[in-house]
Amino acid sequence: xxxxxxxEVVDGISASTVQELLDELKITAGRVAVEVNLSIVRKVDFGxxxxxxxxxxxIVNFVGGG
Amino acid sequence: MDDTLIIRGIEFRSRLWVxxxxxxxxxxxxxxxxxxxxxxxTVSVRRVNIIDxxxxxxxxxxxxxxxxxxxxxxxxxxxxxxxxxxxxxREAGISDLVKLEVIGDEKTLFxxxxxLLKATxxxxxEGFIVLPYTTDDPIMAKRLExxxxxxxxxxxxxxxxxxxxxxxxxxxxxxxxxxxxxxVVDAGVGTASDAAIAMELGCDAVLINTGIAGxxxxxxxxxxxxxxxxxxxxxxxxxxxxxxxxxxxxSPLEGML
Lengths: 66, 257
Prior knowledge:
Oligomer: heterodimer
Strand content of chain B: 15-25%
Number of helices of chain B: 9
Largest sheet of chain B: 5 strands, parallel
Low-confidence stretches of chain A: none
Structural class of chain A: mainly beta
Largest sheet of chain A: 5 strands, mixed
Number of strands of chain A: 5
């Protein structure tokens, strides 16, 4: 499947849910927030939120800032 | 005497709050925060680098159980962006706290107070504990309080400028008459005396990032800021003498030869 992840087009994604995508990208779910097509996906829904071809996914975390 | 700062039921042990930007590495960040004695640290919300996955994360160095994580909306120039970042921050984090920034101009990084007011109102209704970064305008501070802000964060001077508290009179008016909510000076503090001045004016806390992270020795400066904030707070509570133009002798005239 092809997704747009953090602004980059990524091909060959095999994950079908948000949780599977995070696992595939080796990202710890506890410290991120995820948006799919501009809507926030709650952490409790990561396992059941299904991704579709062409979805725009944003995965953010905390970085140093003032 | 107990002198704990409480904002919406959250107790703050330290009146010095620190940012986590601009440090050389996470280890220096950790050491500086420790030396500052702060229990509030600000962070920003940014994309995870999905191509170059580093195992290290800021939160590996700053334990959210030990520190209150205060996400900011730095870099947001519109109400919509500020709302989006705030909501993502709440989802990524563990609290409703947000240091709300709606920036109006790249060169000065001054707040767009009209957008800030709108965003404050919306986020307060959504249950956020909104701490807006604002100008030193007392009327705007009051409007933000009315819109549901939990505290106001007037700037001392432009972000990262180190110019100190440029308008101490307005800051005093904000504290003394404009608002009842806590006042936290955010931005402009360049060295320890600036932090002490902010606290002597009666501010409830001071937030510093560049003033510490940009110092030659950030860890030593963090300790200096810690002491300055404590000293400034004590001086405020002690009640300073009024300024007079002429001298008044400290030693008695009686008994002189």
